[in-house]
Design a protein that fits this description.
Elements lengths: L1 E6 L5 E7 L4 E4 H7 L11 H7 L1 H13 L5 E3 L4 E2 L9 E4 L3 H16 L5 H7 L3 H12 L3 E3 L5 E2 L5 E2 L7 E2 L1 E8 L15 E9 L1 E2 H7 L16 E9 L10 E6 L2 E7 L7 H8 L10 E11 L12 E6 L3 E8 L2
């Protein structure tokens, strides 16, 4: 299934599933009433559906297959939220080594760009701090916890934070946890993934350059309202039998800025679940981001966004997450 959350004419969030090549939505709650299932609590939201487990998922599939006429809504007539908005918890991990290496190299170039002889300064610059990060990355998964209340969907604009002059997008793959997970061995970890989506981790690069020296990870560079964009749907795991062979493409105003593949993940979601769940419970609906795919942001090319730019992030098998960035 391709699960979505949309806002009805009253502004209420409602759970549904995309059909007809994503041009229409089956409202799961309306479908349940139309078919005699009644007001089923599992169809109150996509989070409730995930929390209810496999029996509820089977009923949802039945509703999608039946698609009673009263439950079908044109996709273009409503606004999509993130599939789960807000999620119970979010962690953004670092899974693509190429992104780290290219971002560090670009940041070094930016630091010397104003000097009389940038190339000479670049050659003399120490890379030890960057190499320590890469070494840590290769030893174990690394991650930070995001602001879950900043999550929005594809039909809401990102509002440019007033304190930044250098805004960027990040093309990421993400998974949703489907059931409680604690001390999960890697070989069983995929059983805990209910589905996948696209994640645009918007970033204030000038703020990030200042605060990362504090060695506590990103804060205001990523913590601002509307900064975490997810969607357009939650594709259930059965729809993507091999999640690690998907093409990822980033476009700005129709121009391709970069592409990569999930096959290049140094750490896969199974690794992340096994690592994070050590002595810690993961709950249904939680999100794990993959981190930025190599070539999946402007920083790697020292290119930044402008107000009103349209960002389109595509992941094979999921679709395209469209986001426009606006001044406040």
């Amino acid at each position: 299934m391709r699960l979505v959350t949309y806002r009805d004419e009253h502004g209420m969030m409602r759970p549904g599933a995309l059909i007809e090549s994503d041009s229409a939505i089956v409202d799961l709650s309306i479908a349940a009433r139309s078919t005699g299932l009644g007001a089923w609590p599992a169809f109150n939201s996509i989070l409730a559906l995930v929390e209810a487990g496999e029996e509820a998922m089977m009923e949802a599939r039945r509703m999608v297959a039946l698609a009673p006429g009263a439950s079908v809504i044109e996709r273009a007539s409503v606004k999509l939220c993130a599939p789960i908005q807000p999620p119970p918890q979010m962690r953004d991990c670092s899974c693509f080594e190429l992104h780290l290496k290219q971002s560090f190299a670009a940041a070094r170039r930016a630091r010397v760009a104003h000097l009389p002889n940038p190339e000479e300064a670049l050659a003399q610059m120490s890379t030890r701090a960057d190499e320590r990060v890469i070494a840590t990355f290769n030893r174990q998964p690394i991650y930070y916890k995001c602001n879950r209340f900043a999550v929005i969907g594809p039909d809401e604009d990102v509002i440019w934070p007033a304190y930044s002059k250098a805004m960027d997008f990040e093309l990421e793959f993400a998974c949703y946890i489907g059931s409680k997970a604690k001390d999960v061995p890697r070989e069983k970890a995929r059983d805990y993934i209910v589905g996948y989506t696209i994640f645009n981790d918007m970033s204030a690069r000038d703020t990030q350059a200042v605060e990362m020296g504090g060695m506590l990870g990103p804060a205001k560079s990523k913590d601002f309202d509307t900064g975490n964009v997810m969607g357009p749907c939650l594709v259930t795991a059965d729809e993507l039998p091999d999640p690690y062979d998907l093409t990822m493409v980033a476009r700005v105003n129709g121009e391709e800025w970069g592409r990569g593949s999930t096959r290049d993940m140094r750490w896969q979601f199974e690794d992340l679940i096994a690592h994070i769940s050590r002595s810690e419970t993961l709950y249904p609906g939680e999100v794990l981001g993959s981190g930025t795919v190599g070539n999946g942001c402007g920083l790697e090319q020292l290119r930044y966004l402008k107000p009103d730019d349209l960002i389109e992030l595509e992941v094979e098998g999921i679709g395209t997450l469209r986001t426009r960035i606006r001044l406040p």
